[in-house]
């Protein structure tokens, strides 16, 4: 995911450090967990912080580095790996990890990349009658437009439903979990989440096979709406491999707009398959046509087409 880099407070004012630090990075969603004997863990403890960023200029990935005390549970399958489900403004990161052996339940931390600090979110109270679903890519993070410096962490409920009726959320202004009844919600196929994005004060639950569910989580009773994918992109039949979808499709915000990107195999004249790229931008989330086609494979310059085909040939040879 793209992430704007925050400067640690002790580095502010150091012109040389600022000049070398990238303004944004390609942040890996899988962090690095280091034990007490690792030099990086020692540097974190010496600085009195909870994390560090292993920064690199794009396209090299940047990694979040956290000490083992933030991820005490197993970090190997079948247990969920430590992960960054969402990134927000003001250099905030939502971090999740198992904390005990023998459980697949993850606990969540809200991290501040500016101060290199983190705070564990409390458990969801039993008297709410709901619980967080372990599918971490269904949890979103959004800045509160009415309370500067505050955020919410939210998930739709019940999980894997054909119609959601509740929003469960944690608010940093109250430091409590709560629920909201959805004023309206569309009926759809069982929802598999491929990430939650924050844009324009809204949360967008992405399913790259079905569409996008969107609502304003700060309303008393939010209206959940379904934004369909571009014409011809919805996949009606069950998708056997989520890995295939992750490699071929994604939805991301960029410069204030939401984009749907798909990589398709293009049959060339010699029978070889050359990957092509289609990019749509969202122009209206309320009315059709919702999307505008900004780029397709035929629009690429010849040298980029040749490069894409050579890359595909090399991959097939390997």
UniProtKB/TrEMBL annotation:
InterPro entries: DUF1618
Protein's name according to its UniProt entry: DUF1618 domain-containing protein
Domain DUF1618: 205-294
Species in which this protein is naturally found: Urochloa decumbens
Biased composition (Basic and acidic residues): 294-318
PANTHER family associated with the record: DUF1618 DOMAIN-CONTAINING PROTEIN, OS05G0468200 PROTEIN-RELATED
Record region (Disordered): 1-20, 293-318
Pfam families, per the entry: DUF1618
Superkingdom classification of source: Eukaryota
Lineage: Eukaryota, Viridiplantae, Streptophyta, Embryophyta, Tracheophyta
């Amino acid at each position: 995911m793209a992430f704007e880099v925050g400067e640690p407070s002790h580095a502010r004012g150091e012109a040389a450090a600022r000049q070398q630090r990238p303004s944004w990075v390609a942040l890996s969603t899988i962090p690095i967990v280091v034990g007490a004997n690792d030099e990086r863990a020692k540097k974190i403890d010496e600085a009195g912080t909870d994390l560090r960023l292993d920064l690199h200029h794009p396209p090299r990935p940047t990694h979040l580095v956290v000490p083992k005390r933030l991820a005490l549970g197993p970090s190997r399958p079948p247990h969920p790996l430590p992960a960054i489900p969402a990134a927000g403004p003001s250099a905030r990161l939502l971090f999740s990890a198992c904390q005990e052996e023998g459980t697949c339940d993850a606990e969540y931390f809200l991290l501040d990349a500016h101060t290199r600090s983190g705070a564990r979110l409390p458990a969801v109270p039993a008297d709410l009658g709901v619980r967080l679903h372990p599918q971490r890519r269904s949890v979103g993070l959004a800045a509160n437009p009415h309370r500067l410096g505050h955020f919410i962490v939210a998930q739709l409920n019940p999980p894997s439903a054909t119609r959601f009726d509740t929003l469960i959320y944690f608010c940093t202004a109250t430091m409590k979990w709560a629920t909201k009844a959805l004023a309206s919600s569309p009926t759809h196929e069982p929802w598999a989440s491929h990430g939650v994005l924050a844009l324009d004060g809204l949360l967008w639950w992405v399913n790259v096979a079905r569409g996008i569910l969107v609502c304003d989580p700060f309303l008393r009773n939010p209206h959940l709406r379904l934004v369909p994918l571009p014409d011809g992109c919805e996949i009606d039949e069950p998708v056997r491999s989520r890995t295939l979808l992750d490699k071929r499709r994604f939805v991301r915000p960029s410069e204030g707009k939401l984009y749907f990107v798909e990589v398709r195999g293009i049959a060339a004249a010699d029978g070889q398959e050359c990957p092509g790229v289609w990019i749509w931008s969202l122009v209206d989330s309320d009315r059709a046509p919702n999307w505008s086609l900004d780029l397709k494979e035929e629009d690429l310059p010849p040298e980029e087409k040749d490069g894409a085909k050579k890359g595909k040939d090399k991959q097939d040879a390997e």
